Amino acid sequence: MNKKKISTLLVFMLAIVIAATGCGANTGKSGSNSGSNGGGAAAEVENLPAALKEKGDISIKVIRKIGGDDHTAQFLAGAKQEGEALGFKVDTFSANGDTAKFLDAIEQAAESGVDAVVLSHADVEGAVDAVQKLRDKGIEVVAFDSLASIGEVEGVTLTSQKDEALAQYALDELVKQHGTEAKIVYLWVDGFPPMVRRNAVYQDVLAQNPGIKEVGRFGVASDNTSVDTQNAVAAMLAEHPKGEIDAIFATWDAFAIGATRALVEAGRTEVKIYGIDVSNADLQAMQEEDSPWAATAAVDAKMVGAVNIRLAAKKLAGEETPKTYDLDAALITQEDLKKSSEAVNVATLADIIPGWGTTDAFEEDWIKALKEANAK
């Protein structure tokens, strides 16, 4: 067979392959009612809302302003895992504290044709207008730990951890262990909605316990929050010898991590830390020998991400969703962790903290069925 015949035959075979591939390909949102849910998976779900069936492939963008910490990693992982379990395409992005990048990501989402956007820490100027643009384009929005004014945009649900409960749990444990005349350091930064709520509880506790003395405070949100906090606490320890500080209230685990390092390096582990938020790194620090980190109040960040995706799914399904939703908090103490014969991480916290990491909030029957269908 000469080269010309071989070339003709190859071209003919390639044409057949291309034609076959084109016929078998998913035509996308405009030509498919099979849903986003793993192709044929949606067809297996008898109770799948009609509005969701009609949308075809579902795409969700998760955009978080802060980043570089374990809480962010867990939040994004929880959102992505939940969305993909439903058969949705989920893209995640962290702006690592860069406001311009955060707002630009929202702008890009508005122009990309996504079906829904989950925002985290949309607490900057310009965020409300950006969300309004999303809604004007028919894009569903759920926003975690964001400006209250975003919730005034039609169709948006605001979610948050129960920040008041988080602060109350941590401070109650501090007062329980050190009394109503404790000398404390306050690690807190203004300008963030959850911090504002936590500070309100702190001020209330001080008012109820006038004997508590704040001997120092520090707070900064940056790419190096833990290091900055470590240096600041080290300076406070140099200024206040043993007996002049009893405890530290850290309103963010990035603060608690830095404070823990400073106390250990200075040999000042008699000072105890009461924090907020939890991660594997936090739990490891709490379980180290002679750790000063006595307790932390937290909500499972992975679960937070998952619940926000469920709310987005319900919106896409045309179902009613609340204007606001708060996720329940729990207190984790060193004493709780010592009950385990093995090292505890976020995945095994449920073994010692009842109900940790699980919730059936907004997990409708059709959501459960859709997960089961996509798991096959």
UniProtKB/TrEMBL annotation:
All residue ranges annotated as the Periplasmic binding protein domain in the record: 62-320
Database matches in PROSITE patterns: PROKAR_LIPOPROTEIN
CDD domains: PBP1_methylthioribose_binding-like (cd06305)
Signal peptide: 1-25
Subcellular localization: Cell envelope
GO molecular function: carbohydrate binding
Swiss-Prot/TrEMBL keywords: Signal
GO cellular component terms, A-Z: outer membrane-bounded periplasmic space
Domain of life according to the entry: Bacteria
Keyword flag Chaperone: no
Family note: Belongs to the bacterial solute-binding protein 2 family.
Protein name: Sugar ABC transporter substrate-binding protein
